Amino acid sequence: MRIELGRIYDLFATGLKTDKKTVVTGVSIDSRTIQPGEIFFAIKGENFDGHNFVNKALEKKAAAAVCSRKDKYAGDNIIYVEDTVTALQDLARFYRRSLDIPFIAVTGSNGKTTTKDYTGAALAASFKTDYTKGNLNNQTGVPLTVFSVGEDSKAAVIEMGMNNAGEIRQLSSVVLPDIAVITNIGTSHIGNLGSRENIFKAKTEVLEYMDNGYLIVNADDDMLRRVKNNHKYKVIRVGILADDLDYRARNIVKNADNTYTFSVTDTKIKLSIPGIHNIVNALLAFAVADILKADRKKAAQAIGACTNQVMRTQISEIDGYTVINDAYNANYDSMRMAIDILKNYRGRKVAVLGDMLELGDFEEMMHERTGEYLAYNKIDVLIAVGKNADCYKKGATDFGMEEKSIHVFPDIPQAKKHIMDIICKGDTILVKGSRGSSMEKILEVFEGDFV
């Protein structure tokens, strides 16, 4: 990006005594990585306050700093605003409007990141495409992703996450999507929103800033199936089972490594990421590529070449064990998907599960149901860790799992002390829990760390 500082000043109209013809070449909220010519936004978070690092950013030749707290800063290039997050979003919206290219917004309860990666890769195989790196999908991450879109790009794919109602609406007002993709409506954040109906309403906020665009949905989802065309967008339906689909997966074959090969239109796609649910994620991406007239064959090959990000269904062979590291996050629906992958492996199947968070009044029920699903799918061993470990156990035993196959630990250190006495060479071990549970620490036992 290249924007004159004066244009940014005019947007906020306060402070700033320095040269307004200075060209801003980027945006940063991290003084440690800021580059000369970038503008620094002082964001106040739970554990830090960016205002404490303004002078450091200016020392590194930041073009200016945007602040909400007045202080003795080492320079005149300060723009004062009421709220720096809002200002960051306002500037991102300003920059987005300068880009005459299609923006694709990806949201949903599960599969957002995989679908975003599939979509970005499918488009990039035919033309320059920028898309969300990692998991920058929140109120600051989305604006930063918008700023990363090059002026020579032909498309941008933006992942949108949320915890509460209204957040997708705010992000959509920044991205102004031409195409919206909704992967599914699950139970993630149901503790904050109260019901799947409310989650549906929150996710479909992405449509409020669309005009003559496309909405691509997983029509196998019972709630998304009911979405209809209107004057703001045309609905494109993808799936495996639903009726009246625009893009349907056919000739589905399960491969030896628990990945899938399938056909859509006249194109074959062989996935590298396991799980049947990823067929729909791939269909969503393929539909975007087809709408934007990307080469179908190249799009299919690019989707098939995608591999999972760190701690997202990462499968490794470690010292005689098969380990499925899916510890990045968890909710009831993604737990079921992970168990569906685990059950397809040979040998003993071990589920090491931590707490699922943000479930509110549904907390006990969702953990018990997950335990039931483990038992229903004949998972051999359950190692339950954390506050809700007994709920996992109750669900599993109620559905027939033997108590001798269930091991309950109050925390990760206790689990690490005993896990090597429970698992055996040849086991397939799923490790999963919400981000706050930090279940990836369990895997330190394979490096000899049992504390």
Task: Kindly report the CATH topology of the largest domain.
Answer: UDP-N-acetylmuramoyl-L-alanine:D-glutamate ligase
Number of strands: 22
Strand fraction equals: 15-25%
Structural class: alpha/beta
- Give the overall average pLDDT: 94
* Helix percent band: 25-40%
Structure description:
The chain is an alpha/beta fold and about 450 residues long. It has three domains: about 5-85, MurE/MurF, N-terminal domain (Udp-n-acetylmuramoylalanyl-d-glutamate--2,6- Diaminopimelate Ligase, Chain: A, domain 1), CATH 3.40.1390; about 100-305, UDP-N-acetylmuramoyl-L-alanine:D-glutamate ligase (3-Layer(aba) Sandwich); about 315-445, Protein-Tyrosine Phosphatase, Chain A. Helix content is about 30%, strand content about 20%. It contains 14 helices and 22 strands. The strands form five sheets. It has a seven-stranded parallel sheet with strand order 8-9-7-10-11-12-13, sandwiched between helices. α3 (about 85-95) packs parallel to α5 and α4 (about 110-125) packs across α10 (about 295-305). The longest helix has 15 residues, at about 275-290. It is globular and about 70 Å long. The mean pLDDT is about 95.
